[in-house]
Amino acid sequence: MLRAGLVVLALIQLVVGGWTLFFPASFYNDVPTVDWTPPYSEHLFRDFGSTTIGIGIVVAAAAIWLERRLVLVALIAYLSYSVTHLAFHADHLNADSPGWSAVLLAFTILSVLLPLALVPAALRRPRVAG
To answer: Which strand (E) or helix (H) includes residue 118?
Structure first.
C-alpha cells in the first residue's frame, strides 16, 4: 500500500509538472479552474512545473527505496504543497462555476488525504541502522 500510494503521488507530480514545464500555456488554458486567477505568466508556470517535477522525483525515490526517513520527508514535502494548495482554493472558489468548484475542492482535499493516509504506514517502517 505504501509503495503504491507513493507511486500514485509521484506520477501525479511528474505528469502535472511535465505538462506545466513544457506546455505552460496549454496547462493554463486547458485545465479547468487554472485561469480563475489571471494573469498568465510563462515564467511562473515553468518554475512551478520544474518544482513540481522535483517533488515528484523525491516521492519516486521514496517509492523505490522505501526508507522511513526518505518516505517521511517526501510525504512532508508533498503535504507542504497540497495543504497550502487546498487552503488557497477553498478560499477562491468560483461562484459562477459551482460544478468545477466542487471538482476542484474534491481533488485538492484528496491531494491532502492520500499523503496523510500514508504517514502511519511510513512510521511503521523499520529504521535503517547507521
So the answer is: helix 98-124
Average pLDDT of span 49-70: 97
Euclidean distance between CA atoms 95 and 92, whole angstroms? 9
Structural domain contains residue 118: yes
The widest CA-to-CA distance across the chain, in whole angstroms, is 56
Structural contact between residues 78 and 115, judged by C-beta atoms closer than 8 angstroms: yes
Quick: pLDDT tens for 5-52. Answer: 999 999 999 999 999 999 999 999 999 899 998 999 999 999 999 999
Domain count, the chain: 1
List the domain range (segments joined by +) for residue 67: 2-124
Burial (Cβ within 10 Å: 0-12, 13-18, ≥19) of residue 55: buried
User: How would you class 25 by CB atoms within 10 Å of its CB: exposed for 0-12, middle for 13-18, buried for 19 or more?
Assistant: exposed
